[in-house]
Amino acid sequence: MSVIEENDAWIARDLSEDFGIDTEAELDIGEIKGEILKFQFKSTKGVTRKNGKIKFVIDRKYIRYAMTCRYPVIFIRIDVAPKQAWYFWLQEWILGQSKQRHEVIHRKGSVTTWVSDPKTLSSGLETELKNIVRWRGEVQLVLNLLDSMRAAAATLKIDLVKQIVGVLALAAPTLAGATVDLIVRQAALLGGALRGTAEGFEIGEQLFSVLRKLGVHTTLNTVLEMLVRGNSYSGTGLVRTLHRHGL
Question: Which terminus of the chain faces fewer neighbouring Cβ atoms within 10 Å, N or C?
Answer without folding.
Answer: C
